[in-house]
From TrEMBL:
One of its GO terms (biological process) is DNA transposition. This is IS110 family transposase. Residues 50-137 form the Transposase IS110-like N-terminal domain. One of its GO terms (molecular function) is DNA binding. Residues 201-286 form the Transposase IS116/IS110/IS902 C-terminal domain. PANTHER family: PUTATIVE TRANSPOSASE FOR IS117-RELATED, TRANSPOSASE FOR INSERTION SEQUENCE ELEMENT IS1111A.
Amino acid sequence: MTCDNRRTSGTDRPLVWVGVDVGKATHHACVMDPAGTVVFSQKLANDQAAIGQQVVYVPGRVVNRMTGVFRGEAKSDAKDARVIAETARMRTDLTPVAATDDLVIELTRLTAHREDLMADWVRGVNRLRDLLTGIFPALERAFDYSTRSALVLVTGLRLPGEQTTAALIARLARHLLDLDRQIKDTDKLITSRFREHPQAEIIDSLPGLGPILGAEFLVATGGDLATFVTSGRLASYAGLVPVPQDSGRGTGNLRRPKRYNRRLRRVFSMAALSSIKANGPSRVFYDKKRSERLVHTRALLALARRLVDVLWALLRDRRKFTPTAPQPATAAA
């Protein structure tokens, strides 16, 4: 659900809030004045006519909880639109929705397609593992599912008395070979489109972030860090900042956040895991956290949080990552 927060600077035009309950064929809009009076409530066609007003996002969970404030248990588009408008009128911390450029839209579709292919790959590998375990456990234990040569091998598998299962294995292996080709072709497309982004070189320079994770980062953030005024805001959006849970005399308690962008968290988690495989600042930071008796998962989370700070600073300064911090220029005597 979205909310159109309309603000006008002229004195002759009053300030109003427009709540929009989004639908596939039609939307329902509810207009509310500063006093909370509904001045307009009507269904509108789902078109793309721009009105030049700021748009903010009201999460569905917020609308669901705010619905309980109003009288009655009825559920309708009109009521949802009113709840959205009322929420936007009372809250000033809602996230603005920025227009996404065409490149990020293409990356969104490509990365979503890649996720579908990877999900099909995992399901196929699990089915193949189950079939191999049933007729040839020793082969299943030694089988390398990540190589094409191993898949090519089982496409010609022949075992006495297991013709049906062997045929299923061969068919499944051929399907996985085709999926592998599709994934590689999609990766090439993602890499090619990612390279066209003006910040691609900066993002790609950070250890652990390649073109694929870099593209997912652009998709998760919309390709614009203007809404993340600090690195802490970006880290909080990624769920890498613990939230306080204090009550009464119990203070200083922290817990893992429940509401965050899971895709962005995965980007930095995977980048942290990849960056410690080679010697460098990330490995040094990880080893330091392990020496402080942090378990592997907590050390990785700390490194992921660190990578957020580094990437945010790189994008702010518009410079590539270097293993050592750049020295400030000294004025000539």
